[in-house]
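Justification of resources, computational component.

The compute hours requested in this renewal are based largely on the per-chain cost of generating structure records like the one below. Each record pairs the submitted sequence with a full structure-token output. That output is archived, and it is also reused by downstream analysis tasks.
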Amino acid sequence: MSTVFNFTFVPWFRSVAPYIHMHRGKTFVVAMAGEAIAAGKLPNIAQDLALIQSMGVKVVLVHGFRPQVNEQLRAKGHEARYSHGMRITDAVALDSAQEAAGQLRYEIEAAFSQGLPNTPMAGSTVRVISGNFVTARPVGVVDGVDFMHSGLVRKVDVAGIRRALDFGAMVLLSPFGFSPTGEAFNLTMEEVATNVAISIQADKLIFLTEIPGIALDASRPVSEDNPIDTELPLAAAQKLLTTLAAPQSPSDTAFYLQHCVKACAGGVERNHILPFSVDGSLLLEVYVHDGIGTMVVDEKLESLREATVDDIGGILQLIEPFERDGTLVKRDRTEIERDVDHYTVIEHDGVIFGCAALYPYPEARTAEMAALTVSPNVQSQGDGERILKRVEQRARAMGLDSIFVLTTRTMHWFIKRGFQQVDPDWLPEARKRKYNWDRKSQVLVKKLG
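The structure output for this chain reads:
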């Protein structure tokens, strides 16, 4: 095994470990568009879901079958009809949907049964349980359109799904529901997934879709100048929906977004829109800091705040590599516990990604900013500047005139942000007595306007 691999794999694996711990025991509802299966993505998606489940996540998988039903209809010489973004399900379409669902369930169960050596599924045991977990009712007549055998979710068998998940199985749901009289209704994958996620109060609802996510400017296509909005607060998503036309097809911006908003308002904390075209998009979204698609959340998961005692472990883990390579002066746990109220942190989804401490010297009307650290996983994204601005605000609130730093390696970063180099004799007397002349740290000062 190459040395290069070792030096890249080990830091990467350590960086995903917090997310592995965070998601263990959580419940994900994953909604896979039928287009993903038609595009040949099922084997890789099955492997990724098996991997996620092996790390302690409970998974409900809802599959779509839009292109498969349309293919069945074409084979029968029958036209697919839609209205209000839903299929009009006549008797022929219902038969086609039943045939497509049966074939897809067979393919999905087969995909989770593979255990060939030297593949990601080697040694995995994924039990897949499906059944009549959804009770449905007819859509009826809407604006003069009779939807016939198309339905909506009436009730979800929450206890049944939870028993299957607690048994260690993956629950597989087709977009079908049955009335109390036994009548079958064709549902949409999005409707089933959203209602199931709300009913069981899932921790995540994930749509694997044809679209890459929601662009920062939703009125324009995704591009380098208009990238994906990776985190969309619920209030902003609701406001965006009011500006968008009613969705008619899955490629419309509002199509999946409306279901994410409904689920988020219904208590599902994190709701994702991911592209199935990107291999491993599930893993990238769940186990990487910035993810790959759009996540709708009740409030922004990243917070810039003052530290508490609960953050001590995260601060130690963040600064330890920089202490080891000499960038930072070593601080022991006792010191950080004593001074934790001096720290400002950036937290994202429960993980500390940046910090800095502020030690005031009121007699000199200045303060030292120490241990400014940003995780290598998120550097060059402006988090260092955000922490600096917050520390400056804290110093101003104390009535101080300046802040200073001691550094051996990052002098130019501070100079670009308004610091000026001074002689160590400038330091307040109390700090000068602790100055390490052997370390030869540069002293830089910034005046606070």
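The chain has a mean pLDDT of 90. The chain has 15 helices and 23 strands.
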